[in-house]
Predict the structure.
Amino acid sequence: MPGTFRFSFGPWNIHEGADPFGPPVRPTVAFAEKLKLYKKMGFDGVQFHDDDAVPQLNHMSPAQVEKAAREMAKLLDGEGLVAEFVAPRLWEDPRTIDGGYTSNNPAERQYAIDRSLQTVDIARALNCDKVVLWLAREGTYIREAKDATKAVELLVTAINKMLAHDSAIKILIEPKPNEPMDLAYIPTIGHAIGLSYVTSDPGRVGALVESAHAILAGLDPSDEMAYALAHKKLWSVHLNDQNGLKFDQDKAFGAVDLRRAFMQVWVLDRNGFGNNGEFVGLDVKAMRTQKAEVAALHLSNSREIFLSLLEVVRGLDQSRIDELIAQRNYEQLEMEIIRALLGK
Ligand code: GLO
Ligand code: MG
């Protein structure tokens, strides 16, 4: 069955252009203004960090957080949008400097868990059943600093607490091999899925594959997606692109390697991705050189590239592909795929 595709992105994907070497170059776009762009550009879902949904949540009571989240739900409804997921932002607070769930300090670990349970509450108030865990600082700069076996136990403990807190919530682990840490404990989708099976409810723990993160791990994003699909655990994706092993670039989908992007669309479409309501999420950054009035093009371009590649995928003659596979004539198969990509 072919896939059904709806698109999402997070408000952080429209940004001021600061990088580690230079300040912002574009004015801040207010959240309400960003929301207006979603439908205009063909997007239906909003990805949230907990504090995108409820800014200042560290200074609010649980009742205030709940109220603010309900107001956000109304705002979304008014725009005809839905919340795809909420992710606890566990990498900016001073209490998460040495990691959240795997910090060596028990009080800091407790903060990370409390904040994650609050994220589950925010998701519920947004009528959303998905929490994404990008395990940003769950790793080390030097291996001697933490116990890598205990780290797995601590991650499982944190996930189990979230599962117990709400019987409907699903946890999506977003692996990444490095950055901000030197080495992360959950670097690939295999690690994420392995972790899911040692939690208290593996059926509610799945994964989100980000193209750039797979590439940073030296892996092919479409194979990472296929692996998760085989486990029925691919519940979201962060499509983007990455020019080799450098900092996490979050370039527009397909902008570096069109064929690699094509394979991701192929795998998603052929496995009926989206038929259970999964979103095609983007996690892309605008180039720092981009002027403010055209600083959302990376989003609409990524969506357009996806849909163009979908046409290519669906336009292929499967009997011809089967014939070439039966002949083991992969050189010819490759040429015909390249011709299709070139529109020939
Ligand atoms: C960074 C991650 C980040 C997450 C987001 C949602 O490398 O890709 O953007 O996707 O925080 O959890
Ligand atoms: Mg991401």
